[in-house]
């Protein structure tokens, strides 16, 4: 999702910020549970926000590291402004702390490339504003009736979405590395012997979710409805760097046969030759990852590719991208019970044994990891590691109703944005589930996006 849905680089910096654990999983609770769950989600998001900004000096927070992104200090104050609007004013009925900031931090009013020209709060005042708003918001939450805390859940997810956006800004910035986290574990034994693809059986399944069944669900995830999906074969794991290098070596970037016409035009204009942050050094592919230069790991899911690149690879491989309904059926449908699960492995919250989420690591895990997080169909890593592009444009589920306002999702419906599913290593569990829908422009590569492919049951491999 574009994070702009709520309205919707100096002195040496010690490389001492450990990102692992800054955003612990927040367990979803059954409907009617008390408000502390929303409070813990807000507090986890704030710890991560501060970890991503306290590691840099003021001049780097004020700088624009890419025209694709806002200055980090804009994100910082925008988070506070949205909390002021939705929790202090809308939920609490209290006066605004800083109504004068609304126009500066309205994501729809000023494009990202133009935000450095705004009269932005400097880092110190931005942090004080954040703290003052949070103190008042928690007072409002403490008096909220049990179950009447959707806005608090929404704002917690919004902050985590901006945290992932700020993580992407860290990837784009040049200079000394300031983030650190342990590497994922090696792939488990037998990962190299997994089948290339798994069969997802045909038939109806329940797509989406009702608010009564998942209090964290946002408006574009609702309502639950029945969808019939024909049987299809799906990649067991996301497409890897090694597989994507075969596409490059075979001239995939130079052959218009594989490209959507708009994608071919963009490839030529942008001079794309490989995923973002990759470069060739003799016979070796290298990448830049959060300030480090390193060889591209062959067994990791490919990351930082656009929808156009994913679509071209799929065509080159004689396959296609899954539709959004196909992806969700693979991730949620349990043929044994006929139920749609909250996560591929069931309804329990994500933990470190099921998925690479929550910024525990700063890269995808090797393909075939997390067997405990496998879906009933046998596919692995459907949640976490990399967002996965699907074939579909972003649109409403049947019976959609905008909530709490049109700009949260509805204004993005149409042919301009493509849907991504499943979350990435930088996505917090509170904003990731089998129904969660992300969207972005098909040219975007700074996001932590990869893909997997599929084929019809009658098609060749």
Named CATH topology of the largest domain: paralog of FGE (formylglycine-generating enzyme)
How many domains, in number, for the residues?
Answer: 2
User: End-to-end distance, in Å?
Assistant: 32 Å
User: What is the strand arrangement across the widest sheet?
Assistant: 14-13-12-15
Radius of gyration: 21 Å
* Uncertain stretches of 5 or more adjacent residues: 2-36
The gross shape turns out to be: globular
Overall strand count: 16
Proportion of strand residues: 5-15%
**Biggest sheet statistics:** 4 strands, mixed
Q: Looking at this structure, what is the CATH superfamily of the largest domain?
A: paralog of FGE (formylglycine-generating enzyme)
Mean pLDDT: 92
Question: Helical percent range?
Answer: 25-40%
Short description:
This protein is an alpha+beta fold and 461 residues long.
Explain this structure.
The chain has 461 residues and is an alpha+beta fold. It has two domains: 17-180, Four Helix Bundle (Hemerythrin (Met), subunit A); 188-461, paralog of FGE (formylglycine-generating enzyme), CATH 3.90.1580. It is 27% helix and 13% strand. It has a four-stranded mixed beta sheet with strand order 14-13-12-15. A three-stranded antiparallel beta sheet has the order 3-6-16, covered by helices on one side. A hairpin with a 2-residue loop joins strand 8 (284-289) and strand 9 (292-295). The protein is globular and about 60 Å long. The two termini are 32 Å apart. 50% of the residues are buried. The model is unreliable at 2-36 (pLDDT under 50).
